[in-house]
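Cont'd.
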Amino acid sequence: MRTLPLVIERKSTVHRVLQLVGVLAALGFYLYVVGIVENFSAIRWAVAVTLAVAILGLNIVTGYSGQISIGHSAFFGIGAYTTMILIADHGWPFLLTLPVAGALGFVVGAVIGVPALRIRGLYLSLITLGLALAFPAIVKSDNFFGINFASLTGGSNGKVISSGDVTTKRGFHWSPPTWAPDGWTTNDWVFTTIFVIALVLFLLTSNLVRSRVGRGLVAMRDNEIGAAVSGVYPAQYKVLAFATSAFVTAIGGGCFALASTTIGPDTFGLQRSIEFIAGLVIGGVATILGPAIGGGLGEWLPYWAYEVDWPLVGKLEGPQSGILYGLILVVIIFFMPGGIVYGLRQLRSKFIVFVPRLPVPQDISATPAVARTTGAADRPSSESISPPDDATAGVQ
Amino acid sequence: MNQHSARIRRGLAAALCLSLIAAACGSDDDKAADTTAAAAPTTAAATATTTAETEATTAETTAETTEATEATTAETTEATTESTAEETTAPETTEASGETFQVPTDNCPADTTQPLADGAPIKIGFIGPQTGPLAAFGVIGQGMKVYFDKINKEDGGVDGHPLELVTKDDAYDPAKSAPAVQEALEGDKIFASVFQVGTPNVAGTRQLYADACVPQALVGTGFPAWGDPAHFPWTSGGIPSYTVEARVWVEFIKQKFPDAKKVAILTFNNDFGKTYKTTLDKALPDAGYEIVADVAHEATSDLSNEVTQLLAGGPDVIIGGTTSTFCTNLITLARQGGFTGPIINSYTCQSIQQFMVPAGEAAANVYTLVVAKDPSDPAYADDEGVKQYLEDVATYGPGIDSKVGNVFTGYNAAFMTVDALTRAAKMEGGLTRANLMNAFWSYNIVGPIAIGGIAHVDGITDAYISEFGVMSEYDPAGQTYKVKDGVEIDVEGQGGVYSG
């Protein structure tokens, strides 16, 4: 008797329990960072979460709507600089800066989305490449069409999240509130804040891609003409995808400013964009969990490659660790071609298979109106024969 | 669907290749970062916007050149030490005479004023790029390790404490500096950090050091804000600031061209150029000079308009507070415009092959501050300090390329650190972090082969450590700087402290 894979119906109790396990895993990760890892590592985890949010944004436009963007470092930078400037120069509370950062990202994203209406594929990525290259230069520029950006952004000297008042320690505080547990450090609190914001954004994005809009984006990606025929207005959807994507990434940038406390123009250069794309591909394109994994690896892989004391060769020199980092990326993609999430799904499908809950067949004779569409009743059964989509997507 | 996702994947792969190529073109190669004052042009070409020579980049290149001066100072003293006895004290390095700055320790953790346990290692942090486009600066750490190993082997460390180097990578990204510094402070519990590189990187982390009361000493950037003990007592500079350089120029004009009266200034319109401009705008009139033209140029300019403006005032001397190929353009355009007088260049465009050779014969009567002895220059083959350095690298760092300027830089930074540690150990209270910082604020090093003079700092009247060098004329025929015939300028002490 064949017992594996275990077939579980979606939205069944067992499925819900498994989902709860996922939630508990997230909670466990949170408690691990706040409670167990050393204080200074908490800040790296916080940065990793902000990168995950940025990649989540990139995923909307690249993963779900199929438009390749190499310009997301700029949206990330817009968010980071907005938060940084509002806090350091205007004394805003951190949380209030995020809507502004997001809104600015949204607007710039919409503007960049306009060329996407006519240009696609590699040509579109060239436009976004231009954005990635221009952003650091604009930040440094003191006369960009009459605007002195350098005085706003600190130019090439970068900007520090500090009120500049040296009498208070660290200038700017994001210290734990009074109700926080004893022993919480600033780093714990920074991580907590960012983690909660990230959770919200991941949930919202997850809902978005399952909504009418999300399905419209995917349809447009897979067959633009078909989608248009089915009522998806490509112009609106493409611009919306870019704008929403930039919105999410910019909020990630705002959080990044809080976590890293210092930013400079070259923090948001082309390399950052490539990190995002690499993170997205490694994690898993067009998945919700992919960006989370990609963000974590994006922050920690280079660090481990440099810091780990290897048994035989010892600690690697900087350039060698870069080679190791690259090698790890290659190995991951070689063994999990669709990214880690697809790799895991493939592994999981050997044990557990999720199938959609089938609609309960109607009593045909009772409702004559439906009787004409009996084909609809046949379809679910034929679908259940073929393996569910997500279990095999990574194989092909 | 699969077909489409495959298409996306193909597209992504192509886009990645494209961006990787762009990134490859965009990054400075190691060579550029290694040669003095060379980092700028590659960056500029890459970003296709003639990216302004970033202040930070210039700071770095400056680091290499300048440090060597101190290194030579260092090595002489060190040579003397060895010849006299096995003592760790360098007889010629003394604390600055008179009162020196004392760091306040009221808000510090208790261990700030507790001496290091007997025999415990002294952990010295070096936070800088080990990976990324500017990873070439990482070899500064190698130079440090050579000198620390030498001290550990020959003297048993400092005051019985072995020296241990802790390197942290920030990939030259200021956003990565704060986590790296936190880790060094809390995880590795470093005793001090020296020669941290990058202006925004230092600016963004100095509060962390101040909170932890750990010295962030001899930082490797030329930004003037590091001479600010009143506000940031735990951060001190290690290389001359651009302010200091501008002062040297004024002093040089006074000595070399007593008949000159009118000066024209060209500066780069960015933070780096503004530092020159602010200093010159005050120092020149104070010294009795008339500024006939004061022009700032953009990164996109070809300088033709700007040079016309400069020449319109009929200057006796032109000062170029700019960098990279703009130095070359300034020289050629000024000569084409009929100007034969002296032109003074920023030491960030000292690189002969990159900026001077292209100007050809026009580069006669051009002067630059030379602050570094180049270990690869045959002219210094017999120099005691350079010889000692080459020998130490061969002994303690086999496989390290001793000709690389950054290794020399690190070696010197380590010398300066050991000097401060040695003095701190003799202070009342022993080897504490507070005493070490006090020692970092009180240098008075006399080196017989130093190019310019005494490295002095007391933190009260003088917060800048290196304020000297040789203004040398470029020789277009020999393609070299005539350092031996140059004018030694020492504005030591004039820098005062940072005033915002």
